[in-house]
Write a structure and sequence with these properties.
The protein contains three helices and twelve strands; from the N terminus they run H-E-E-E-E-E-E-E-E-E-E-E-H-E-H. It is α+β, with helices and mostly antiparallel strands. The longest helix has 24 residues.
Length: about 180
Amino acid sequence: MKSPLKNYIYLAAALTILASAGSIWLSHKIVAIDITDDTNQKYIFRHLFKPGDSFAFKYIHSVQKTPVWEYYTIDSGGQIVLTATKVKSVGYGMPKPKHGDSYAFKDGFFIVNNLNQPIKVLLIRNTFIRPMTIFCADKVLKLQELADRGDLIRISGFQTSRIGFYWNHLEKYYGKKRCTN
């Protein structure tokens, strides 16, 4: 017959192991993306990034009047990295291939791949003249519906702990903290 004290020791050991594992999981470093309206200090969207995840920004070029797609990821340090661009036409203000770039023509688009250009923060001035859309985590974020004309939209990547990500997410969601990094 086991003594009750021995059962409590096993229970305490199991709880200690669970608490340690939970602590390690919560303190694990992760990367994420924040999209905010800096003009109105308004939270728009936050997403936890895993290796290989990406997001895209689509807009209509002001001169060429054709669609432009920009593809980004977040590196392990939390920095935004431009990985590719896809344009319908070439000309003024459009990307041109440099020596060593990987590019192709597909479905009527000129695509430049493997850019791997780090960007500290992606700033977008919202407009109602032409649609601007961000595609991230199966979400379609139409900036004209989420912010006012002329508002400055900030897209930033960051590294944090898992508990920090969720805690800060709650603060931003409930409006207790300014929405910037």
